[in-house]
Protein: Formamidopyrimidine-DNA glycosylase
Organism: Microbispora corallina
Amino acid sequence: MPELPEVEALAEFLRERAVGHAVLGVDVVAIQALKTVAPPVTALAGLEVTGVARHGKFLDLDCDGLHFVTHLARGGWLRWREDLSGARPVRPGKGPLAVRVRLSPGEDDRAPGFELTEAGTQKRLAVYVVRDPAEVPGIASLGPDPLSETFTVDALKAIVGGNRTQIKGLLRDQKVIAGIGNAYSDEVLHVARMSPFKIASSLTDAQVADLHEAIVTTLRDAVGRARGLAAKDLKSEKKSGLRVHGRTGEKCEVCGDTIREVSFADSSLQYCPTCQTGGKPLADRRLSKLLK
């Protein structure tokens, strides 16, 4: 799933390539992906892309005041095309293509654009056409952006104070902190040397400060690694930069212990026992329930 660093990199990528082009048309292949009906998607035709922004994990193209907003969900991705002038007409089907955005030709007479694709059987990629990004429910309910100046240690202290949620779940909750998903929450907690099952309200002031530092540095480092890369290279860069997430059975690069995995909510998490849980493996609670 693309998270804050990848969506930020995609926004920068599109600022360089899409801004200044007019929208020739938007072809919706996966009808279920389009979540709004007014204004119609056809209203984008002829409008110029004037800016690109990120709201949490949402990508927002400003087209002369009308916004094309997308959330790539778990299996979605953006594929840039240098020339769509000869592309075949899109037809609804079983392929991964969900939406195609065609842009006006540049000085080289090539008509660029991008395609939104989604792998897997669970189709959750979402597209909205709105006059104000705040009209998108997921954006309206977002918590603070962890890379904003307002996300201070005191702001995080206010978030965790009195919250009985496990810290792993709190970091993933978009209504609490925007942009962090399953992968980077694992990375943040490893950097902070904190158990994913630790209760948020139990954090000391020093631990809150450590967690804040881990959130900001982890995300900024990931954004820095992704900056300037082509959209097609962002997935592989993300994977190569992760220290614990997706590395079950490998050695922790900090202490050498074996990275372990347990189930969490609708997915799984990875962690280092030595770095995060005092050397004690976490119990897989989902498996424990099945054995009862």
